[in-house]
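INFO  loader      accepted 1 record
INFO  loader      residues=191
INFO  predictor   begin
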Amino acid sequence: MTQVCLVGDPEVNLRYELLSRETARNALATYDLREPFENTVVVETVSLGAAVALLNDLNWYLVRFTRDAFLREPSVSETEWLSRDLAAAVRDDEVSPDETERFLKIYGVEYESDRDDEGPPDAVESTESDDRDSDDDNDPDGGTVETAPDLVEPMYAARTGPELPEYDLRDVSDTLVVRVAEDEFGGEKQR
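INFO  predictor   done
INFO  writer      dumping tokens
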């Protein structure tokens, strides 16, 4: 299964914007929407081709309401994501999966407890497998559920060896790695 992650612009509620519009709502109707990070929408598709097609179907909304869109294809990497452009290039056989590792966009993952200088919560072991839907603020037992972590300040880095470059823009508990195409490296791509 290929996962698609849409990251909303800070000024909008991405889930609301997508579901309040008929065309986007219809495109997403067959998917289980999750929010593992603050103001994101994540869905699972059957293949890389289906994931790229979904992003193409949602393009009008992506341009207006998102700051990023990326995909995770297990045949390329179990833990690292692909930018939309890089995923399309892999799907179209313009780039082999082995050639996607060099250029990276690394997001910091900031938990609510990080903002309080306490470190990550024990309840969330890894952002890579966090499948919670954070719509509810309370758990069934009456306690408070930890809010979804934020994706903060992406850092561009080039991998020069087997080790991942260290995220150094701020103190964070975790990172999310997105492999990007060479022409996307070093700055935001124009939509």
